[in-house]
Predict the structure.
Amino acid sequence: MHISSDDFNDLTGFIYKKSGIKFESKKMYFINKRVSKRLDEIGIDSVRDYLRFLKFKDDGTEFQELMNLMTVNETYFFREFHTLESFAEHCLQEIAENKIGNDEKTIRIWSAGCSTGEEPYTLAIIIREMLDNIKNWKIEIIATDIDEIVLEKGRKAIYDDRSIKDVPDEYYNKYFDTVSGGHMPKQMIRDIVTFEHLNLMDRMSMRKKRYFDFVFCRNVLIYFDEISRKQVVDHFYISLNKGGYIFLGHSESVGRITTAFQMKRFGSNVVYFKG
């Protein structure tokens, strides 16, 4: 089946309205291939009929299937190490010292667009490495994604060789088990992470996210247009505690999206926080 330009525009417009994800015309082949396969699977003959079904008959299940097809999830442990270095050696230490000074021992992190879970589990490993007297701390990492399939993979937490290619041997030996089918973070790491389904354009659900010390949303907002990007980052600002930090991907800049955050520099790395 070939999707016409009008069908492409109508379908991607519907996806944008529901999810904030913007597909440019250069993605037409990608969309055509994946939607055609889906229509064959469910027995719908045209994009027109499919759109009618999504708008008027779907209870949300089919739209979720569509989003599972449309999102690309490429990730691995300790990705973009320079960002993690700033988090571990500077930002985490600062937040922890402030918490201790206020006689508080809770740290909450939101990994938004967590994909199959490598990022939140990486953060859990870093925290166990960097915090003294870890048993005295309550650590919560909330990992969210729009794709139910990758969330289930994150919960199962079995990873192939590629996912762990950048894990230092010392960390692998301390925090991973070799299991049938791959590599699994140990229970003490998995216990820190909770996976939840979340559409970043769902305003009601986003408003419920509060009291985080860190928000990670790396290489997710590149799929959003300028308006949606700002809306999401504004929600992140509200969700953070005063002094909390936000981390985007290396090709994304908080400063280009909003002026709400303040900037700090650690060596050659720039970080943004809620002042």
